[in-house]
User: Fold these one by one.
Assistant:
Number 1:
Amino acid sequence: MKILEGGITAATGFSANGIACGLKKRKKDLALVVSEQPCSFAGAFTTNLVKAAPVSWDQDLVKNQKTVKAILINSGNANACTGDQGIRDTHSMASLAAASLTSVDIPTTEREVLVCSTGIIGLPLPMEKVEKGIAKIAKDLKADREAAQKAAQAICTTDTFTKEVAVELMIGDKPVRIGGMAKGSGMIHPNMATMLSFITTDASLSKESLQALLGESVIDSYNMISVDGDTSTNDTVLVLANAMSGSPQLDEQSPDWESFKEAFLFVHTALAKAIVRDGEGAGKFIEVTVTGALDKASAQALARSVVSSSLVKAAFFGSDANWGRILCAMGYSGAEFDPAKVSLSFKSEKGSIEVLSGGQPVGFDEKRAKTILLEREVEVHAKVGEGNGSGTAWGCDLSYEYVRINGDYRS
Amino acid sequence: MKILEGGITAATGFSANGIACGLKKRKKDLALVVSEQPCSFAGAFTTNLVKAAPVSWDQDLVKNQKTVKAILINSGNANACTGDQGIRDTHSMASLAAASLTSVDIPTTEREVLVCSTGIIGLPLPMEKVEKGIAKIAKDLKADREAAQKAAQAICTTDTFTKEVAVELMIGDKPVRIGGMAKGSGMIHPNMATMLSFITTDASLSKESLQALLGESVIDSYNMISVDGDTSTNDTVLVLANAMSGSPQLDEQSPDWESFKEAFLFVHTALAKAIVRDGEGAGKFIEVTVTGALDKASAQALARSVVSSSLVKAAFFGSDANWGRILCAMGYSGAEFDPAKVSLSFKSEKGSIEVLSGGQPVGFDEKRAKTILLEREVEVHAKVGEGNGSGTAWGCDLSYEYVRINGDYRS
């Protein structure tokens, strides 16, 4: 597997565009991703009972539609908690995008257009602006790097940087690419959050294989990150596969399945980690690895509980070696373990330091711990001593800035 | 039921003291509560798998001991994650307190002394200081208001005020009193948190009745508050009943059971709400009431989810009528409901305003909403339209101050 410069247009046959249609004050807020050929596709969605209108639209397509061609995304307004009007507006967006694509010689039906929205909840979409934007956006679709960047910019909300990734690997004798883009920031939490992630590949997979693979990958990537513990109304991961690499169709029996799976997970994990790095107000990137748990699920539950704890996060903000809070968060994770067998250490570029060994506190050098914890990227290693389960979760600190951003997000 | 000025010494036969033994820099940090007569007792404890040493001690007494006489509490050090040394230290504290009480003519055994600790996690108790403190504290036990206040001060950590309550009611023709004190601040969350709460009563109840009643009361009081979502290693609620009012023994068959139960719950709820009012960095007190849910448990889950959401809490910090976040938090509560039937309104001393009606956003006056939300006490009312279940939860906003306090708690 080779890591490329690139994003959503890296795979053969995908083009994109990103423009400003006026939902945000000045910035880009409308993105379109299109495939020349119809795509197998898969989706993973928020578990929140309150689902934004576009989530319902996409879930219906995933359930009932065989192929799609495009994804239309707006930022600035989530079209969530918008009642019946929201449902109608999503439908219009798909329908307008299909017409717009058809007008530029990419014949598309409304049910071939997935729709995503992100931004403020509870206000109706200003459809006049959206309509004008959709009429315009298909006219300048390109397959180059710049087009991918425009699209990546247009899906951002409080994100401070765009999140893109692309890789290439050989399937048989054909190079296959997987590219993607995501937006995150606040509300990022295990089991999805206001997070949109889009992956395109020119590999060939059946809809069923793609859906199964996505389900598996989500568990180890997006579900292992936390910014603030809230699960949003709009979380969506969509994958399109257009088979245009000409490589043989992949399934679990293929000799290249494992390497494709690995590359696919790499792409999702890279985007998930980028989301956490850009968590609202985040100053630190925290990686928690649990080893020796009863099983993988226990290890992941333990790691997730640590990155989700407000108290742990605030301690990292203060670069405070407050390992008691880490053990405490493990204790309420729901996973079984014996606190008396736990060892904990911190690690960063400045070195590593053990603070708890077999359940017994280690008298450690506070000054050295501080030096390690003052780094922007810090690892926590927890050895549990129960079995062979391991898992990693990613999170960020809880800062003044998080409170500032979220204390007045709407204005 | 009459509300009295008073606290842990309000009921007949209870005396207390609070002193500084040096665990904190200057403030009081050791409290003792004693009953003249042996007491029926009950306890509710943290659900965290990582339990502080004193929690294990108290749980053992609740399970195996028939009566107790005293509670010894230190603040400044939680004696949690302290390994075997912690277990030995708790045992010593009970044993030293028993000796100290016996020396002032209150014959007590070590297994008649409940022990609680709160404060920093992971550092061994400075036992030399604790020993000297225990030797001294029993010498000045008093049953007056001032003694109760001293004890209430000595159990505080980052609390900014003491939390005390006392009530009186008639059981038969005898006045019976229930008094209590608590400490809270950070880490307060449904299913207990670093919260210590102590209740004394001169009513007469069997240990079994008292334990059942406490279990029921905890669900509607401490389990309905949230400060930051963390569940601590030390959470403990202890109740002592010494029967010294001379009133008849109470059980579920007693004619006065319901009124005692109501008074008992009032005391716990008053302390729970005081804890939330004093949440770390809290500037607002938020009461969320859900009506029309499928059942009481659903209503409580919905209300709890709202007060626990970091995004909702940050919105309240900014006095922002961000009702979408409230609906969103309800959506991931785990309770079943139809978002299309939900109505939401805000209320404070400045009036009330509906923002969502039957799942449809209401165009409301933002300026008026701001005026209502700028108040220090704000109510959220959610009507769900599924059944007759109702529930109330209490929480606070998420402020810069929370981050400041918890970013450097240890120093």
Number 2:
Amino acid sequence: MRSSLECIPCFVRQALEAGQQVCDDELLLEKVMKRILCEISGFDLSLSPPEMGQKIHRILREEMNVLDPYRQVKENASMVALSMVDNIRQLIDEQTMPFDAAVRFSIAGNILDFGLISAWDDSKIMDSFQNALEKPVDSKMIQQLKNAVHKAENVLFLADNVGETVFDKLLIEQLPDHLDVTYGVKASPVINDATEVDAVVAGIDKIARVINNGTDAPGTPLEQCSGRFKQCFRSADLIIAKGQANFETLNEVGREIYFLTQIKCPQIARYYEYEVGEWVVTTTSELRNIQVVESGSER
Amino acid sequence: MRSSLECIPCFVRQALEAGQQVCDDELLLEKVMKRILCEISGFDLSLSPPEMGQKIHRILREEMNVLDPYRQVKENASMVALSMVDNIRQLIDEQTMPFDAAVRFSIAGNILDFGLISAWDDSKIMDSFQNALEKPVDSKMIQQLKNAVHKAENVLFLADNVGETVFDKLLIEQLPDHLDVTYGVKASPVINDATEVDAVVAGIDKIARVINNGTDAPGTPLEQCSGRFKQCFRSADLIIAKGQANFETLNEVGREIYFLTQIKCPQIARYYEYEVGEWVVTTTSELRNIQVVESGSER
């Protein structure tokens, strides 16, 4: 999806909050912010918001001379997630519909996002997991996904954040045994998005093939991805994409994709008649229908 | 006061909201926003936030080719204020401490600010006036101001927003008869700040001399003001400055000034230990004391 005018102040706020998370040198932050303002002033709004995020975080890393400013945040997120995983696996196994429960906890894990929400907030994070089984989620879409995983022979599962990965593993554990699973991550650090090493920390390499997409972009901007990743994307029977940045970069792609995400952006919420904070299971084709119903022509 | 890093995302948000209030051409807004981002990227943060607001609103007016984009907003604010003024004057006159009440309604009028708060919100506006007599305001400072107006021979009253002017008039009516009152406004439109014509609409010219400060800046950046205004500023026994932009441009000036404002900015709130939404009567010397108490050296 293209960026909107409303993305502009949001980019700027995110950039400052991200900078402040990793740096307390006001003069350096001023320099960084001014460079980022220039970058945004030249940004092509026909590109997706994660592509702007990519540019902003490249500047942050370069100016601060740190390859992975979110390393500590990611370690915390992994630690918190791993401390919960055994209890939640048991809880999932106790449910009458464990696949449904696993989908819910995978979406619950999407709270561990430090792009849109900069600061670590224990109560928000715990709230997301404690209410996972009660949160309204479209049960028809979960059933449709369940049918799809049974029909498919191979699935490409696109990761979002570190820590969330741990709960994605619980969902992968609920997939049928015959299914060949590839878990797609980023090639190098951007915000707290998962890379190959983070997938290993979550133990995903034990139950799936891990592949990086060749980029340092949030989401999955296909034009930037490696040939190997694009081949994997094209040949997958089924794609499950986690998180809002994957939603923003893939929602208009010409193939069926399942999106599992928490809605964090008021623009996306308005566009698709979601609420901010809503938990969504949807597909590219369902999203096209929402658009057609709402506008009659184009939105 | 200097601008802070936190002003940057706030400037950008205000610029977009202001643009959207007066224009629905997305392409023009994109052009305007990109120009404003460039402008902010070159901004000297040692200047005050209103000086950035001045630059932003100059760009908005120029690109949209409108001399006074807030004309309609100002007409609405005047109409609403004038519809209330007789009842509120009567209410003030009925109080045992009418000066105190008039100070409160003058601060209540400061809700009519469309710089920081872009959209007209009836409930917020009504709430401000309905709670004027109950709002916590430092009564010692009101008494100190009352003593000061009795001692002074001439007062310079610095206006903020259109509509608020109507309630400033009610406060001016409570000043002692001997006092020579000058009401300072902007030379030309910026946001919904009062100019000479707006002071006349409020009827202030009937009870005070109206003078413009020579600028199109929110607040009162003295270096930009006309010689005539600066002369008036220097020779005033007493200065009463309304609103946050006057606070931001005059809080460190080397003379006593009374500030009457609602606190709208989290940065100012943090710096002076106010709450956002608090109603403040303070002076330059009291502000210096707060700083000294809090930091020991400098903040």
Number 3:
Amino acid sequence: MKYAAVSLILALAASPASAGEPALSAGEAAAIDKLIDRALADDRAYEILESLTTEIGPRLGGSEAEARAREWGAAKMKAMGLKNVRIETFDMPAWSRISESAAILAPFPQPLAVTALGNSVSTPEGGVTAEVVRFETLTELKNAPLTGIEGKIVFVDEKMTRTQDGSGYGVAVAKRSEATYEAAKRGAAAAVIRSVGTDSHRNPHTGMMRIRDNEKMAPAAALSNPDADQLARALLLSRGPVVMKLDLKTATTPAAPGGNVIGEIPGRTDELIVIGGHLDSWDLGTGAIDDASGIAITLAAAKLVDEMKGKPGRTIRVVMWGAEEVGLFGASAYAEAHKGELARHALAAESDFGAGRIWSMRTKFGEASAPKAKLFAEALRRLGVGPGDNDASGGADVSPLKAAGVPVIDLNQDGTDYFDLHHTPDDTLDKVDRQALKQNVAAWAAMLYVAAETPGGFRD
Amino acid sequence: MKYAAVSLILALAASPASAGEPALSAGEAAAIDKLIDRALADDRAYEILESLTTEIGPRLGGSEAEARAREWGAAKMKAMGLKNVRIETFDMPAWSRISESAAILAPFPQPLAVTALGNSVSTPEGGVTAEVVRFETLTELKNAPLTGIEGKIVFVDEKMTRTQDGSGYGVAVAKRSEATYEAAKRGAAAAVIRSVGTDSHRNPHTGMMRIRDNEKMAPAAALSNPDADQLARALLLSRGPVVMKLDLKTATTPAAPGGNVIGEIPGRTDELIVIGGHLDSWDLGTGAIDDASGIAITLAAAKLVDEMKGKPGRTIRVVMWGAEEVGLFGASAYAEAHKGELARHALAAESDFGAGRIWSMRTKFGEASAPKAKLFAEALRRLGVGPGDNDASGGADVSPLKAAGVPVIDLNQDGTDYFDLHHTPDDTLDKVDRQALKQNVAAWAAMLYVAAETPGGFRD
């Protein structure tokens, strides 16, 4: 399905399955097969992943560590032979964690494992010591009267459901975004939530709250799931009030340096396929699954396409987005910096859901182009990837592009265990399954081939 | 097999399987069956476990929290109707953790998850900053020259093998005990070890080193397994030295209050069966598997025997040993305080290997009594417990009794996952399988019945 040589009409005519539907030619199918073979035998994604997580480690958006990660990324792209490698910088507000601790003081004194939520303000000097008031869910808190819990510590104990597609997150994450505001509205001294996570380890899950507004926020933190269990039990077993101390110190720099790292595999036309992952991670772990894996998968897949005979039909642009976790600053900066060339963006996709095997795909193409999803499904079938609807989300860093009309594709990873690790100290290299990582690279390489070579694009 | 009514000779004569070997009578087997039925339907062990881990939480030997645990234990025993409930106090040296941190400073700056090992001295004010020298195993360190690593940080990277019977621990724990001395001998500034544990979480495993001797020790700490991986990779990937900072603050009080909590189910004779677990835990977690489970299992099992018709043949003494983790202070104090009555101790056993299902048993009886192990095996068969040899260890707190000639029995728990949690923050209530806990209680209750009723004891 080379861009210039084979037209869609030829491909349609050649379809053996059902006339009138797009299909890969035998030559194209063979090329993809070979590409997948090479990907499944290639360990470069793991090498990239190991290098980023070891040589940089944690890399919070806007930090000095993220700046080192950008240098690492540009050097890695150059070493791998990508062209037009550059760092596109921007300024951003940078939140950071200084210290955090929590304890039950009465009636059962003991420490609790806690972590400040991103954008949290500090507690007053010496911390907050107050009675705990538990809410089973965020909804219960929202429905609570506006008086009666002044000066207390709100505890939102809502649990998260384990799902393969990550849909449990969308439900559970609301408490992380909003508990701070609901607590402050009621004059509470602080908010603690049960971690947005599915594990049972003493590793609390951090994550961003809604836009910072100091006037309307209570200091907010997450307890690990076992600690949330413990606090809930203490409330149940105590005959009197449970008093907790929470001590958070955080800081914000209004304008810290941020940046996206960009490199390209030049194609035969100036149309662009934009792929990538985000370079930043939370500060607690080394961001192996979130999102060094996405960086590694997309870069390795692009390189495999680069090593095919001839240039790809469209240019493949690999982006390492900066500062995703802390507010999509890299995504916004990219969309702004490249708004003049968005019409040339034929397709965009992000890998940002760990390194579990890809099990399904979705597209968001124009109506007339929607049937071309079949070409991708055909290319990915051997890898156990099932077809999906034309309702792809595109990934967080791709959302501004999608909003501007750029077609997107999702290669959906198995996220059953993703929220055991997400945003915790436990997001480290040992959690990545090396074989599943290769399957990801193979799927991205096959997707890239179809994306680069399919005539006519995906907008119409 | 009631003590007074049925003699061993009768039991032997009644054996349907093989004449000359001990066997349970039909009545005894029926009584044990009923006891097991009741145990499998009883949730009191879980209630005890929940109460201790929630209402006390971490309870390091010699701490104020352990003192609260003793009050909790005595109150619990009284509430459950045990007799002669008392706390036998003693003095002990108490080590404690004040603060701990570690980081790679160069060439890949990032924090490391670390915990001080029990008995570690503090690092000098401001911590130790030095190059890391890695040793694959403790043996490699022991074989290393006595010069050449002065002022450096020794890193013993030895891995632990996962086993069902815990035998991997005996091999791996040597580095925890000895690395500090081997490092100090060579003038090293500090020692860090890969955690003695089989998990892959950012929770380092603490644990005791050999007797404290400040003059001959280097400050010593354990890295979590992912952090040990990371340090090993940094050493591999770096072209120059890897520089690490280790900052430990610890303290020791020469004479802190300690104690054992003791209660009894009085029997028809003054012979004693001593069972129990240890009341103290490490400070990092709430000691659910180590060893609130042992406390809960043995107390619940004794209570189930207490609820049978009539008194048991022998008195069942339940001991909550103090300060096991930090040097077996409770075990020594018990043996010393009770040395005048050790001849009356017919059998001793400790539950201290978590809450996994019991899968085998072992005895250490006198030669002539060894065949009586068959009675226990017969009683436990229904629970899936296999028979074993006459080479039981008896458990750490029972070791002084065993050394003094008291027969012991081991009910061996499945420890396949035990060292994922052992001595870490992750040793919390949620890790206990409620059904496996009941199986433990049933096995201990059945064992107690046979132990209390078998005539002639187990010494000969």
